[in-house]
Amino acid sequence: MTSEVEKESDFQIYYEELQSLYRKNGLFESMVNSFAQKYLSRLEWQKREQTDDIRKKTLATMYLLEESACIACIVKKRWPVFVYPGSIKTFEEISEGLHPEVPEPLKQMIWVSICRGNPPRDRPYV
Questions:
Q1: What share of the chain is helix, strand, coil (3-state, %, to 5)?
Q2: Distance CA 96, CA 22 (A)
């Protein structure tokens, strides 16, 4: 944990809340696990590494929970809008209110995914 945000006292609080939510809420756990799987499948190094698959999944899960805690800290500082060049379904779902148990700042987050090409029919750009 080297970033400035991770050194803030709220970071650890949010991170622990997210870890607890992951352990106790099957829907949230499923969403995080789905992210971890997609994240790992896109990484070139992981295909070459002989690292244990369980360890890889654990690291990818920790990464998402840490990033979520960082975002919560940033939103709390009144920087609620995040623009991402692509799509991260996890943060889209959180910003759409599909996981109301997340820490309060994440409920206030505004997530903007910028995708190239035609928008999906069920989720047109607005």
A1: 60, 5, 35
A2: 18
Residue at token pair 């006292």: 9
C-alpha to C-alpha distance for 72 and 70, rounded to whole angstroms: 5
Q: What is the pLDDT of residues 40-77, one digit of tens each?
A: 887 665 556 666 778 888 999 999 999 999 999 999 99
- 30-54 burial by CB neighbour count: b if 16+ within 10 A, else e? ebbeebbeebeeeeeeeeeeeeeee
